[in-house]
Amino acid sequence: MIIEGIELRPCPFCGSGNMELCEETSDVERAYVFCSSCHAQGPDMNRDVARSEYKNAAARAWNCSGFYDAFLETFRVQEEDEEQAE
Ligand SMILES: [Zn+2]
Q1: What is this structure's pTM?
Q2: How far is the CA of 47 from the centre of ligand 1 (A)?
Q3: For the chain: N or C, fewer Cβ within 10 A?
Q4: Which residues, in sequence order, are CB contacts of 51 under 8 Å at separation 6+?
């Protein structure tokens, strides 16, 4: 899926390509990529980025391999925590 001229990588959680680029302008101004299949989202872009660049920055950050790997690592840690809680 191409958003803001950028081909977004598939969701690292469910592999879906149903990504949306969301923008909030109410309480907190931010933009982020959202998976409409599993509702994963991130990363928030709201600081040090011009408002007109929020969405483009969020799309680029989503594709950033460092973020992508960190996102997956966070997901694994959360899964382990949930297993221990049971
Ligand atoms: Zn997903």
Answers
A1: 0.68
A2: 25
A3: C
A4: 29
